[in-house]
Each structure stands twice: as structure tokens, then as C-alpha cells.
Amino acid sequence: MTIPMEYGLLLAAILFCIGLAGVLVRRDVIFMLMSVEVMLNAAGLAFIVGGAARGSADGQVMFIFILAMAAAEVSVGLALIIQLYQKFKTLDADSASQLNG
Amino acid sequence: MSELLWLIVALPFAGSLVLALAGKSLPRLAAAMIGVGSVTLSAILMLFVCLDFLHANPAGTPVHQMLWQWINVSGFSPAIAFHLDSVSLTFVFVITFIGALIHLYSAAFMWKEDGFARFFSYMNLFIGFMLLLVLADNFLLLYMGWEGVGLCSYLLIGFWYKDPGNGYAARKAFTVTRVGDTAMVIGLFILFTNYHTLNIQDILQAAPHTWAPGSTIAIITAYLLLGGAIGKSAQVPLQTWLPDAMAAPSPVSALIHAATMVTAGVYLIARTHVLFELAPIVQTTVAIIGAVTLIVAGMSALYQHDIKKVLAYSTISQIGYMFVALGVGAWSAALFHFMIHAFFKSLLFLGAGSVIAVLNNEHNMFKMGGLWKKMPVVFWTFLIGACALSALPLITAGFYSKDEIIWQAYASDKGSIVLWLTGLAGAFITALYTFRMVFLTFFGNAKAEPTYRPGVAMTLPLVVLAFLSFAGGFIQLPDNMGHVTLFSQFIQHTLPTTVTTASGHAAEWIAQVIAAIVSIAGLALAYRIYYNKPFPAAEPVRNPIQRFFFQGWDFDLVYDKVIVQPIVFFSRIDKNDIIDQFYTGLASIAGLFNKGLAATQNGKLRWYAMALGIGAVITLTILLYA
Amino acid sequence: MILAWIILLLMGTGFLAWLTSRWSDILPRIISLAGTLLFLGVVLYLWFTHSASAVPSGNAAAGAWIIHYTHSWIPAFGIHIILAADGLSLLMLLLTAFLGVLSVLVSWKEIKTRVGFFHFNLLFILAGITGVFVSLDLFLFYFSWEVMLIPMYFLISIWGYENRTYAAGKFFLFTQASGLLMFLSILGLYFVHGRSTGVYTFDYEALKGTVLSQPTAFLLMLGFAAAFLVKLSTVPFHSWLPDAHTQAPTAGSVLLAGLLLKTGAYGIIRFVLPLFPQASQQFAPAAMILGVISILYGAKLAYAQTDLKRLVAYISVSHMGFILLGIYAFNQIAMQGVIMQMVAHAISTGGLFIIVGALHARIQTREIGQMGGLWTQVPKMGAMGLLFVLASLGLPGLGNFIAEILILTGSFMASKILTIIAAVGFIAATLYSLRIMQKVFYGTVLKKWEITDFGFREMIVMGSLAIVIIWLGLFPNSILNATQQMVQGIVQQVNITVNGPQNANTLQNASR
């Protein structure tokens, strides 16, 4: 029994929205980073679903790329968070609004 | 000697320059020597030049002297050059001679004042510019002298600069005369555009061939020149500055505001008589302005308390007589009255100055009185001056000069019975206010004690001027009385003879007798009202009519409301320049844009993410459905 | 070549002044003084050797340059270094050098911070101005135009008074924006000329003959005129001037009023009229009206001011109106008056600015409400003030009178109505000028200031200005002769292009 592609894509969309909502709503930088991870995984899921539907391995290859990219992003992101914490003594993203115009 | 003409002009300028540069470090005596000396030297030189002029050429050929080319641009080439003929010689004589006497007087009068050297620097500068005015061979140089004397008048009226009132009077004088001057400058533009030269003699020769008598352009030009003349000579409607100008020290009033500068308008009209003859309507206007002025100013003089204000209004009124003479074409009569008036009016101003000085700067005649015994020299000379001003018959020079004007106002081809009657009325008023002044000041009870007696330096000029006010008239007697015509013959080298229509000695006799009676009647009336009568020293409460005359017919009030206040208001409301506000507005609009856009860059990551999300949704929606 | 050396001399002196400032504050001053004096000496030498040859000879065509120097710069784009001088350029150089020396002298005590950098900027402004007055390559001209702008920005924004940043920014925006319009026009002319002849060049002499269609010519002319009218502070583009003049240090105000404004007039005479004679004729009525408006509106604003320096600044607006009126009258009398006005205004307004600066240094205010009765304490300053106030109201015998009477006589031939309205400016000038004397030096003492009169250095500055302004008034021919050939050429050219040779001759004769 095959699951229809729409179901998989719907799941990916829901996951993406959950992630986006997390980024927009949470002020804690760590949670925002985690939410970004959720969004990335949603995108990866969409790739896999698409690849499976076409019967090719492209989608899975793409997911490997995304995994690698996400790992790099998390490492850079965590490094920035540590810097942020050292500078502002908080993990609140809004307090770092010094680039306002 | 004539080639030394330039030195007459240069000496006062040099004196002024030296005093301006080194005045502070010079002792008073040295400053006085330079100030008085330069003008006296000029006067002596003038005598030589005068003799030379009279002897060397009985025909009165003008002497021309060119110093250097001033400007030379494409045909616009006025030079610094002098033109000496009988008219300018008369003026040069009065300027240097009376100038020297007044300088001598001032040396004593101003001795204790601060800024002694500054005073003489200005006075010398004035003499220099005045000579430039009357000797100029072209209109531009004449204009330089014209503005220069205006400047000196400004500086000397405001000489006691610490009083803002003096500064106001000075600025008023300069500004009001500049209104006339600007009209005159426009007249010069017209002359240059039409004749391609500013040389006075060239224009006068060319004008009758170029312009038809009564043509519009001739009329406009003559009116514009007249504008300059009435500004300088304080004629209606630009007369308001002269009474205020009495803020100047008395010798200044004598020199500038009586003898010389205020008669520059008379000089200008006489000098450019050809242009006025080409515009008969303007010449008539000159006569009317003169007639109106002599009554307006005479009435105001009757109501003054300040002795100098009486003399100021009297000057305006007497220049009115000269304008009447110019208006009826009695050129030599106008210049004769100018000269005689210069003698007796400067005498009166100097006498009044002495009185004011010894009474500790008291100007109010009602606070004087009984001075005739205490200051005999001043009294007797003042009396002679007053008699000349009132034109008492036969013995005074003023009679011969003024009588001629009144007679010509009737007898000339441009004269009329109205002008004659106005002249007679003026003569009556003149005698009345003059002897009002004499009786109030010198007779009656003494209300103030003189603090000192004027010295020789002050009385000598008075005596000399008194002699001239008395004897000066005998160089020109009417045809029915001796018929001496030294002056008019001399002037007729330059100016045309007066054309008279009414003739016959009988008419002239009657006219003279009437004029004599009128002035004696004025004297008699003054005697009845003012001689030995106790008057309160305080300023009286004036009824509206008296106030109207006292304030010079309220010209000032009208000008203030109509011209001064709107200008001040207009400059106030737009001090910060509405045009600048346009640019500032432009800048603030740009600033608003900046604020709006800057608000989107709040530095908050989540807002950016939200904007990203919304943007993506919108883009996708458009991509899917469009 | 000598012209290039002059510019290099000024720039070199500027660098040297900046370098030496690390050792002492006095060195930059002495070096700048020496540099500008040398500049003055060289220009005086040029003036006296060449002004004789500038007297009209048979050939009156413009293009009879006294000094001419060409060197290739960027040949690929047809850009050359062309420096040339005729009577007008030499006169302007003389003025530049004279005011240059004076501005170093007046800054002697006034500037206390960053002295080296100040003199660097000062000398670069002078170099830029010199470049403007001698460049005959339009690219080089624009380059010099910018060179004089930027150091002036620094001069105002670093050493200016309380509101300096605003004023400097405003000055920069106005001149820069209008300068860019001019650059567009220069490029436009460059390409039109290149397309029609195949030769792409910025050379003034070559571009002068460019055949342009009427609308193009008018548009290009407007671009040039924009830059020059803004620089000339014509109403309604004047509003940068009062702020910049008021906030600049004294030397800055002197240079602004004395030279920068004059570059606008120079630009119109040198570039707008010869390059676009026909379009200029079309533009003339509008320009003359703007001139008259400037005269009266500037005078009105001057009368209203209470800040003495701002008052003097608005006097400049009024006087520049005369220049505009005179240029567009298109006859020799008016044009010579314009040149006279450029010099006389530089001297008279420079003198007034120096007096205001000296007063400000002594009493720390420019409000005339705070002054009054100062003559007693500072008679020398008062006398000098009187002289320059009289010059600015156009008293005969001083330079400004000659200028104004020539301009008005000339413009009377072109437009009677406008001239009569402009003559009212004489009365207005009396009002605002005498107001200065009354409020500052005469009247009651409002505040007891303890102030000293002009010292030796200041008297040298003021004395030389006084001598020049009187000299200009009595012997104006010494200057008018030097520029006559150039003026005649330009006036003829403008009139020939429009009326044809015959008419131009009769016009010439009519003004004779």
C-alpha cells in the first residue's frame, strides 16, 4: 500500500508551518534555532516525498545535502549564540536589535 | 590762476583725509588748524581764481579743467573734470567763503566736544564734495558730489551718535534724499541713452536740437531731475527730513542745512535750465512746488518753539522762493537770493547756535528772553540777519533779493498773479515768525543767564556775515532804484535773461511798496503779539490745528503710516525667508521617508523572518494564481 | 606653464602646511602666508607684464589669450589640461591671490584647532578657484569646480559656528546637485559635438563652434545656468548662502563671498554666453527678471535680519542680482559693470565679513540687539565699518558705485522697466546699510563690552581693503581697460549670432 504523495507533502507543510511559527513566536535564540531545524527537516521531507513519487533517488540525495548543511548551520548558529550570550547575558533575540535603522 | 582750480577742491579733501587718519593723535589746536586752514586756503585760492576769471575774460568764457579719465567703457566716458562758469563760481564763492567763516566759528563752538577732529574731518569732506558738485563738468561727477554731501549731512546730523534720536534723524535725511536721488539717477540713464554722453554742456547744447519743446521724454527727464532737486532742497513733498536734521551741531545747520547743500537743488535746476525750458509744464511745477512749500513751511515756522526748528522751516520756505524764481525763469534772481540767503541764514544759525551754547543747550525760545543786553554782538548781528530775512525795505540785502523774486513772479512771462500773491503772503509770514523769534529770544524778561560770552572766533564770522547781509544787496538793484546789475550780468554769461511781460516803472514801484508794507506789517504784528509779553516757559497745550502746523502739516505721520510701517511690517513677516522654507520642507519630506523606512529596520530577527514568510506566501500566491 | 605652476604651488603649500602642523601651530600659518604671498607676487607680475597687451588691438575676437598652455591628460576621452588666461582670468586671479593672503591673515588668531588641516583646506580652495578661472577644458573645469567645493565643506563643517553641520550640508547639497546638472550638460555637449564632427573632445575652443538645434541648446544651457545661478545665489536658489556665510569661519566667508560666488558669474560669462549665444538670448529676459528679484528680495531680507553676519550675507544676494541683470543686458557697459561688481563686491563684502568676524571674536555674539554705541570703544573698527557700509550702499567714489552705475546704465538700454525697478535697490541699500551703522556703532550702549580696537595685523588687512575699494572708485579704468577686449569679444559674439553681423555693428555703435 502506498501512501498518497499529497499526505506526505501535507505533513511536510504542517511541519514547516510549525517551524516557522516557532521562529516567529519564540524569543529564545535556542528555540528559534530548533525551529529552523524543524523547517529544514520539513523541506527535506518534501524532497524525499517528491523523490519517492517519481521513483528516483534524487530526493534522498538532496536530503543528505540538507543534513550536512543543517549540521554546519547548527555549529555556526550555536557559536553565534554563545557570542550573543557573552555580549548580552541573555538569549533573547530581540535584545540584539542593535542593527535597527 | 585758473589752473589751480583743482587745488580748491583738493585742499578740503586732503584736510579731511589727514584728520581722519591722524585726527586721534593730533592735539586739538593742530586739528583745528588743519580743518579751518584747508578751507580758508581754498577760499583764498578761490578769490584769486575769481579775480582771474573776472579780469581775464570779461565775456565770462567758462574755464575747463580735466584731471583724469574716470571711466571709459564703450562710449560711457565721464571724466574727473571741472567746469567753471559764472554760476558755479557763485556757488564756489559761497561755499568756500561762508565755509571758511563757519569753520572758524566751529573751532570755538566745538572746542570742548569729543570727536573734535572727526567733526572737522566730516566738515572738510563736505566742502570737498560740495565743490565737486558745483564744479562737475558731467552728471556722474555731479552725482558723486551730490551723494557725497548727502553722506556728510548724514554723518554730521548723527555726529552726537550716542543719542539714537540723532541717528534716526540722520538716517531719515539720507534715505529721504536718496529717494529723490534715485529719481535723478534714472533721469541720468535717460540722458545717457539719448545723448551718449553725460557731459552737462554737451547735453545742454544738443538738447534743443534733439527734443521738441514739451515732448514726453523731455518732460519725464525734467521731472526726474526735479525729483533729485526737491529731495536735496527739502521741498514739498520730500521736505520732512530737514526739520529733524536740526539734531546736528549748529554750525553744521548753518553750513549744510542753510547755506550750501540744501540749495544744491537750485543749482541743479539752474544748471540744467535748458532741459526745464524744454518742458514748460515741469517748470510750472517747479514754481508751484516752490509756492506751496513757502507757505507750508512758513506756517510751520510760526508754531515752533525750538529756535533752530524755526530757522529750519524758514530755510525750506526761502528755498521755496528760489524755486518760484526758477519756475518763472528768473534764473539770476534765484541765484541772487541763494547767495544773500546763504549770508543771512548762516548768520542766523550761527547766532542761534551761540545763544543755545551759552544757555547750556537750551533750544526753547520761550525759555530765553532779555538777551540783548547780555550778548550785544550776537544780538545786533542776529537782528541784521532777521531784518534781511524779513526783507525790510531799502536797508537789507534780503529786500533786494526777495523783492526781485516776488516782482518776477508777477512780471515774468511765466509769472502769474497767484504766484505773486503767494509770495507776498509768504513775505508776511516770514516777517512774522522772524520777529517772533527775535522778540522771544532777545527781549522781555530774562529767563536764563548766559554762562559765558562768545569769543572772537565766534563773533568775527557773525560780524562779517552781518555786513554781507546788509551790503550784499547793493550789487544788484532794481531798475527803478539805481539799476545796478552787477550780479545778473555776471550770471547772464551762463543763464538766459528773464523774459518779462509786465513792464514800466510804475507797476514795479507799486509792487515794491506793497511788498515793503507787507513785511513791515508782519514785523508790526509780531511786535504787538510777542514784544515784552510774559509767556509761560512750558510747552503749551496745542489745539489740533496748532498741532497740525507744529508737526509740519503731518507729512511725517502720513509717510509713517503709508510707507514706513508697511515696509517694516513686510520685512518682519518674512524674516526667515519663505523660499528657504520651501527647501527646508523638501528636506523634511526626505526626512519623513527616511523615518518610515528606518522603522522597518528594527533589528529584530523575528520581524525579519515574518516579513520573509509573508513575502514568500505572497510571491507563491501570485505565482500560483496569476 | 606658469598657470600650472601656480596651481601646483598652492597645492604643495597646502600639503606642506598640513605636514608641518605636527611640530607647531605657527609654521602652517607662516608657510601659507608665504605661499599666498608668492602667489600674489606671481599674479601681480603677470598682471603688469600682460595687462598692457590686453588693451584692445585690432582683433577683437574672443580667443586672444594672453597665456595658453596645453597638456594631454586622458587622451582616450579627449580630455586635456588646457590652462589659459585673458584679461578677465588675470583679474580674477589677482582677486583670488589678494583675498587668499587676507584670508590667511584673518585666520591668524581665529583658528585655534587643527591649524594645519585648516590651511590645507584653505589653499586647496584657492587652488580649485584658480583652476576654475583658468581651465579651458570643460572636464578640467568641472574637476576644479568640485575641488573648490569639498575643502569648503570641511572648512564650514569643522571650523564653523554653532550650526555648522547643517550649513555645510546645505551648501554641499545645493552646489553639488547643481554641479551635477552642469556635468550632464557638459557630457551632452561632448557627445553632440562628437557625433556631428567625429572628434570627441572637452576643449572649450572646439566646443564653441558646435552646431546645436535650438531645444537642445536651450536644455544644455539650462544645465550650465543651473550650476552658475545657484553659485551666484540667485533668488530662488539663494537659500544655501545665508547659512553657509553665517556659519563659516571668517576666512571661509571671505572666500565664499569674494570668490566662490564670482565663479558663478565667471562661468556664465566664460561658458554660457559663448557656448550658447542664441539660447542665452532666449533666456535673457527671465535671467534679468531673476536678477531684479534678487536685488530687491535680498535687500528686503537683509533689512529684516538681526544676525549681523546673516545680514551681510543677504547683502551679497542683493549685489549678485546686479551681476545677473548686467550680464544678460548684453552690452559692453553693463558687462564691464559686472566685472567691476565682481571685484568691488568681493572687497566690500569681504571687509564687512572681516569686521563681523572681528566683532564676534571680541564679544562672542553676532546679534545686533546686543551691540550699539561701539564707536566710542572701537573707533577704527567703526570708521572701517562706515567705509564698507558706504561702499555697499553704492556711494560714489567707491568701487561698488562704478559697478552699479555701469550695470544700470547698460541694462537701461536693454530694459527700461527692469532697470527702474532695480534702481529702487539703491534706496533699499540705504536702509539696510545705515541700519548696520546705527545698530552696531551708533546709538546707546546696551551692554558694556570690554573690547579692544583693531590691532596692527587687522589694520593691515582692513587698510589694504580700504585702499583697494577707494582705488576702484576713483581709477576704475585701470581694471576696465584690462578686460575690455575680452568683454567686447563676448558681447559681439552674442549679438552677431542673433542679429547677424550688420545688426551687431549697429548695436555696438548704438552703445557707443
Q: Any overview of this molecule?
A:
The complex is a heterotrimer of chains A (101), B (626) and C (512). Chain A contains 3 helices and no strands. Chain A has 101 residues and is mostly helical. In chain A, helix 2 (29-54) runs antiparallel to helix 3. By secondary structure, chain B is mainly α. Among the domains of chain B are: 330-540, no CATH class; 543-571, no CATH class; 576-625. Chain B is 71% helix and 2% strand. Chain B has helices spanning 5-22, 28-56, 86-109, 116-135, 139-157, 164-195, 200-210, 216-232, 241-244, 250-259, 264-271, 273-277, 280-302, 307-327, 331-358, 376-390, 397-411, 417-442, 456-471, 486-491, 505-530, 544-550, 555-573, 578-600, 605-625; strands spanning 63-69, 79-84. In chain B, helix 3 (86-109) packs antiparallel against helix 19 (456-471) and helix 10 runs antiparallel to helix 15. The longest helix of chain B is centred in the N-terminal third of the chain and has 32 residues, at 164-195. Chain B is globular. The model of chain B has no long low-confidence stretch (mean pLDDT 88). Chain C is mostly helical and 512 residues long. Chain C has a domain at 278-487. Helices cover 76% and strands 3% of the residues of chain C. Chain C contains 18 helices and 2 strands. Chain C has a two-stranded antiparallel ribbon. In chain C, helix 4 packs parallel to helix 10 (250-275), helix 6 packs antiparallel against helix 8 and helix 13 runs antiparallel to helix 15 (399-414). Chain C is globular, with a radius of gyration of 22 Å. At the B-C interface, helix 5, helix 6, helix 23 and helix 24 of B face helix 11, helix 13, helix 14, helix 15 and helix 16 of C.
What share of the residues of chain B lie within helices? over 70%
Helical fraction of chain C: over 70%
Number of strands of chain B: 2
How many beta strands in the DSSP annotation of chain C? 2
Compute the average pLDDT of chain C.
Answer: 88
The number of helices of chain C is 18
Instruction: Please state roughly what percent of the residues of chain C sit in beta strands, choosing from under 5%, 5-15%, 15-25%, 25-35%, 35-45% or over 45%.
Output: under 5%
Instruction: Calculate Rg of chain B over CA atoms.
Output: 30 Å
